[in-house]
UniProtKB/TrEMBL annotation:
This is HD domain-containing protein. Signal peptide: none annotated. Residues 34-102 form the HD domain. It comes from the Bacteria. It holds the Pfam family HD. The lineage of its organism: Bacteria, Bacillati, Actinomycetota, Actinomycetes, Kitasatosporales. Gene3D superfamilies: Hypothetical protein af1432 (1.10.3210.10). It comes from Streptomyces prunicolor. InterPro entries: HD_domain (IPR006674), OP_Dioxygenase (IPR052567).
């Protein structure tokens, strides 16, 4: 699925309310909607000028909704869905949030992961080998991906008020207007 407008993306993000990272709800303690808002809010706080990073945090797990149960491929599905609308950097950051988890598991083996993240780490390839870690470090977006991953790991707090999804519509419109490969008339950006 390729998202063609901010409105389509907003509809998908609203559909994350009551949707979980595992079909049987045995995974993380917050739904995909709250997780997205928390991740984006943490990134807004730590990197207020980097709208693309914040948006990557907002959309990084929509692949769970697009292909339920595909933990290993959810980042690919999400990146493919947003690439044309939000640009290559956002898509690449979304794609890298899994390798960043594997990298951090290798470079900081004692760091805390949620129970679900520990389970999915195994299906996603486990901690990186030294060769994989060296390749990851050479990616120009590696540091930003690590920042996204750290926010992702922290954004699983039940009951945390991270704002409302509608607050992100304008930011999504700005990022889409700057980066989209779609005709402007299709973006659906807010005036």
């Amino acid at each position: 699925m390729e998202l063609r407008s901010v409105e389509e993306l907003m509809d998908l993000l609203y559909a994350c309310r009551g949707a979980w990272d595992t079909p049987d709800r045995s995974g993380d303690p917050v739904d995909l909607h709250d997780h997205a808002l928390q991740t984006a809010a943490l990134l807004r706080r730590s990197r207020p000028a980097d709208k693309e990073l914040q948006v990557a945090g907002l959309v990084h797990d929509i692949g769970h909704l697009l292909q339920p149960g595909d933990d290993a491929g959810h980042a690919d599905h999400a990146a493919d869905a947003v690439r044309a609308l939000l640009g290559e950097r956002v898509a690449h950051l979304v794609l890298l949030h899994i390798p960043a988890k594997r990298y951090l598991a290798a470079s900081s083996p004692g760091r805390d992961l949620s129970a679900q993240s520990a389970v999915t780490l195994r299906t996603q390839g486990g901690p990186m080998s030294p060769t994989e870690a060296a390749a990851f470090e050479r990616d120009p977006l590696a540091d930003d991906a690590i920042t996204l991953r750290q926010a992702d790991d922290a954004a699983k707090v039940v009951g945390l008020d991270a704002g409302v999804l509608e607050d992100w519509r304008t930011v999504l419109g700005i990022v889409a207007a700057r980066n989209s490969r779609l005709p402007n008339s299709r973006l659906g950006a807010v005036d």
